[in-house]
Amino acid sequence: MNDTLETVVIAELDAAGFDLVELRRGGSKNRPLIEVRIDRRDGQGVSVDDCATVSRTLEARLDTSGLVPERYELQVSSPGDRPLRSSAEWRRFVGRWVSVLAPEHGGRFEGKVIEVEGETGDAAVVTLEIDGKPRRLPLAAVKEARLAFRI
Known about the structure:
Blueprint: H1 3-16, E1 18-27, E2 32-40, H2 48-65, E3 73-77, H3 87-92, E4 97-102, E5 107-117, E6 125-130, E7 133-138, E8 144-147
Helix pairs in contact: 1-2
């Protein structure tokens, strides 16, 4: 992914009060596709109006940036089943349920995030509540994690 493009997208989202969850580039050489997944900082769900507002803001910036060809497609959406990648994202969702894939620690399971210790890499450890019991898991052992929705 072009680091400059990501920097521009993050700056525009930051100014609008949103966080970048994921930035993907696809499509064809003649018609590139830029997919932007956003999240609100206030914890509320991302609305269609939010996506439209961010789309207009990003298009205005990208159209004048020279970072993308004239004919590109921009898709802005909510994160859906949001992936968790950094310890900061894990901390943000303390108290929420997550679906985790950690092959060396039991495979795929769901748990409630209780706390996160350490900053990054091998030092970061999350404590999950699984079946009413706390379980510590090094974030380095997590291959995939997404928010899980429970009713």
